[in-house]
Amino acid sequence: MHNIEALAAPIGVYDSGIGGLSVLRALREKLPGESFVYVADNANAPYGDRSPAFIESRAKQITNFLVQRGVIALVLACNTASVVAAYHLRRLHVLPIVAMEPAIKPAVQITKSKVVLVMATTNTIQSQSVARLCRAYGKDVRIILQPCPGLA
Do 44 and 57 fall into the same domain? Predict the structure, then answer.
């Protein structure tokens, strides 16, 4: 039996700006019975060229803000915040945290040219997460990692 308060508790969605609104729209379509709280850190966007320490600090602050408001799960709708902070946030909080990552696996699966171009923020391109994805799925294809300074 579900607790009524738990049923009404929202899912938190966080991005450095408004780009995560497309993620929120998809969540609303897939989970029409859920409520959501969206936080856009517009004052500090874009995150792309910020230091990992800054991004991790902001992600912790915003996650704490959402947890204090009773979210039952968190979606990091920002690639950069995901690759920099998801691991640390999961160690600090017991709620489910869903992170975004570049779509390297599906790109590798559908490429006909055997070449995949990944364009992302410098922090995302330089992350262990992207390195892990390239090792796991890039054995039979050429993956070009292109940092895009100034990207959100």
Answer: yes
